[in-house]
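Possible race condition, two jobs.
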Amino acid sequence: MAANAKSLTKHFKDVRQELKKVHWPNRRELTVFTSMVLMAIFFIGVFFWVLDSGFTGMLKLILQ
């Protein structure tokens, strides 16, 4: 039981050490990256909407 508690304690200490090495984004970086992700999602959504509309139109022409 004591060995388990020691290994668990060591694990959390190691995790804490690794988290200190992480580069956390500042507010500006976070804003820029979030904006880029939202724009990418928007443009990909529009792309697939246009593609879907085109295929739907072609399918309607074929099935008439």
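Job #2 (started ~2 s after job #1):
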Amino acid sequence: MKVIVVGGGIGGLCAAIALQRQGIETIVYEAAPELKPVGAGVGLAANAIQGLARLGVANAVIARGKELEALTIFDEHDHIITDQDTRLLSRKYGISNFVIHRADLHDVLAQALQPGTLHLNKRCQTINQQSNQVQITFTDGTQTIADLLIAADGINSVIRQQLLPESKPRYAGYTCWRGVIQNPGVTINSMISAETWAPQGRVGMAPLPGNRIYWYACINASENDPRMRRMSPAQLADHFKGVHEPVQQVLAATKSEELIWGDIADLKPLKKFVYDRIVLLGDAAHATTPNMGQGACQAIEDAVVLGQCLQQQSTIASALATYEKRRVARTAKVVRLSRLLGWVSQWENPLLIKARNAIFRATPAFVTQRQMEDLYRVDF
């Protein structure tokens, strides 16, 4: 069996690793002309670490990032809204609160592939199914054929758009900036992942190895707003004027070239991930807003489960059917909950904010822990 993966992101690389560990010939085609150390931070929960362990790369990933002890949400005055100690979950499910630079994670995954697996500057243009094979045509005019095509080409998947032209990204209502900077001399809690819910928007921060800070900021805006696109670090810091330290200091210390901007979008949950010999994986199948930190985690889960299904089932068709059954409902739940959480956390109305914060503060810690455990129990 020959398998082709279109998309060399986290999900695509993990899928290739899972299949190659079973001796399945797997090639990855990535549209980017070169692999650059781009991106910001990425959070990995226990379900992702469990998946990486099954791929044999967990220790290498853990060595490049940082394990944290709590997930804490503050209001604009630095008062705690909710505080979840993740050490208890880590003892039960493995590391449950981990942050790493996306480029470091990608590097570990790429190194785990067999030599010659990853082909760059190969953008998929069209796909054509022929009996039990799939033909892929690239924008450079070349073609290739495989017994199975894994579409891991992201939220704007060319393959999904050909299969399901009506499935398009839906804007979440807020735009986001991200960055990774050297600590400019501010004091942050080096053991927590922190998020601030302010009337102006949200700001999250997490420490990375090497005295670096990964941060993100979300502001309600119209889609593709040119004012947001042009916003400088200084302007972004000024937008959050009045929010507790060190929010403004960290934003203002970011260099323009360190700033990554983009609107937040997800996909309306799909009912199917499998189309004959084509299977959707990761963001191509179930792109989610980042509010639960589950985007990369669910892609890693996909890869492990797909590998297991191909190993355990006697035919490709039965393996793909099992994969779809195991993944559609779980990922749809994450997409819906994450979108809901993003909507609530971006409220600007003072009365709604007051009521929301009071409800979160009154919610017992065990309720939040139970919700997180539901995510960490994976049917691997």
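DSSP finds 14 helices and 19 strands in the chain.
Logs attached separately.
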